[in-house]
Amino acid sequence: MTTYDTAPRSAPKAEGAIPTTVRFDPAESLEIDQWILELRTQTGIRWDKAEVIRELLRMARTPDGILRDALTARAKRAGT
To answer: Does residue 7 surpass a pLDDT of 70?
Structure first.
């Protein structure tokens, strides 16, 4: 059984933080915004996109490797 500590961490302070840009097409961006709104409703936590991306990447790096393995399998299917 896999469990994740999904309590969001606070964002790093601007000084010393390394910015990363993720680009979405308009339809995908809207879909993600709606999904994040559902997360807020379900959890009562006001997630923003950056927090969600950071948390998903943390979850993908957990020792059980379930999300990493799923991403690897998807990449192999896509031929990338």
So the answer is: no
Give the separation between CA 64 and CA 17, rounded to whole angstroms.
28
Phi-psi region of 16 (alpha: psi -120 to 50; beta: other; left: phi over 0): left
Q: How far apart are CA 63 and CA 53, in angstroms?
A: 18
pLDDT digits 0-9 by tens, 34-48: 999 999 999 998 888
Of the candidates 36, 62, 68, the one whose C-alpha atom is nearest the C-alpha of residue 50 is 36
Q: What are the backbone angles phi and psi of residue 17, rounded to the nearest 5°?
A: -75, 150
